[in-house]
From TrEMBL:
Stated name of the protein: Diacylglycerol kinase family lipid kinase
Gene Ontology molecular function: any one: kinase activity
Organism: Aeoliella straminimaris
Keyword Nucleotide-binding applies: yes
Keywords associated with the record: ATP-binding, Kinase, Nucleotide-binding, Transferase
One Pfam family from the record: DAGK_cat
Domain DAGKc: 16-144
Record bears the keyword Kinase: yes
GO biological processes: phospholipid biosynthetic process
């Protein structure tokens, strides 16, 4: 990665101050069993407080309080679900509070875009010595709720893949569980008559199999679903897979095929600052297993929302 446009922020040292760093440790995350040693190291860092909330809403509340009390950085130790709980808790944090990730999740798709290494020692090293860039987050709004997400929301048939995966399957199969579950959904694909209103006011009406709203590039176990997505371009990448052929079906589960398929132009791929979606029947959207089934549903990007620790090959616009 070429150096970022904005000069990288200095990351507060773990050695600074009495309550410097809050770590949200998700003991339900897929790889948490491998992480005892890293946990010991983090707990021994001066100025670091590690907590293990039982639910994402507890985590969000704890992060919000810590930010109000002046914490200087917050680390999500978990997968994409943990990351979302932390970034929601950081929504009103001061501009200079730094966000980082220790990838304890099953797939950790957002970390692929951040270029946070899977190896936990290397990831801890990045937290200690890496640089931070101001990155976008995505926001979802319906009449009854608003929430932020870091990576990707998937609607249509694809949400049924993540919905059907249990934590036991994640522990047993790792990222492979997404492929196994994807194959089981193929027998029963549904079409959704969908209207997408874009930020320029135009509307597309389409028979949709899947609709993906992406901030990061990969989903469902590192499938590169939004290859043009950049983490600080101030845009969401919208990928619409229309009802189609057997090739479309293969594209839903084929890791490499999907890349080729997107590039073949058979998929509607567009970037926007915001979109509004309505459909018949209602498309349920999943944000890492958190289900939203209310319409209309509006997505928008929050440009430069979070000072985030990134690796050298992060997919940032420079
Ligand atoms: N901050 C949190 N603290 C405790 N539990 C959480 C938190 N965030 C999410 N959870 C719960 O833990 C489960 C697993 O979380 P997470 O998504 O972070 O890991 P994963 O599913 O193993 O990884 P990935 O989503 O990257 O494949 C979630 O489905 C949710 O029930």
């Amino acid at each position: 990665m070429v150096p970022p446009q904005n000069p990288p922020a200095e990351i507060p040292s773990l050695m600074d101050g009495p309550v410097d760093t809050l770590v949200i440790w998700n003991s339900h995350a897929g790889r948490v069993q491998e992480a005892d040693e890293v946990r010991r190291q983090l707990e021994a860092e001066p100025g670091t407080r590690l907590i293990t909330p039982e639910h994402s809403r507890d985590a969000e509340a704890k992060v919000r309080t810590a930010c109000q009390q002046g914490v200087r950085r917050v680390i999500a130790a978990g997968g994409d679900g943990t990351i979302n709980s932390v970034i929601n808790g950081m929504a009103d944090a001061a501009d200079d509070v730094v966000f980082g990730v220790l990838p304890l999740g099953t797939a950790n798709d957002y970390c692929a875009s951040l270029d946070v290494p899977d190896d936990l020692d290397a990831a801890l090293d990045l937290i200690r010595h890496g640089t931070a860039c101001r990155l976008d987050v995505a926001e979802l709004h319906t009449a009854s709720r608003s929430t932020r997400f870091a990576n990707i929301a998937t609607g249509g048939n694809s949400h049924r893949v993540t919905e059907s995966i249990t934590s036991e399957q994640k522990q047993t199969w790792g990222a492979m569980c997404y492929l196994i579950s994807g194959l089981s959904v193929l027998a029963d694909l549904r079409s959704f008559e969908t209207s997408v209103t874009w930020d320029d006011g135009s509307t597309s009406i389409l028979p949709v199999w899947n609709l993906i709203v992406a901030n990061g590039q990969t989903s469902a176990g590192r499938i590169r679903i939004a290859p043009n997505a950049k983490l600080n371009d101030g845009l969401l990448d919208v990928v619409v897979i229309e009802e189609g052929s057997v090739m479309d079906i293969a594209a839903l589960t084929g890791r490499y095929l999907f890349d080729e398929y997107i590039q073949s132009g058979k998929v509607l791929y567009r970037q926007a600052k915001s979109i509004e979606v309505r459909s018949q029947p209602v498309i349920k959207f999943s944000i890492d297993g958190d289900l939203v089934d209310e319409e209309p549903i509006r997505f928008r990007v929050v440009p430069g929302a979070l000072q985030t620790i990134v690796g050298p090959e992060a997919v940032c616009d420079v």
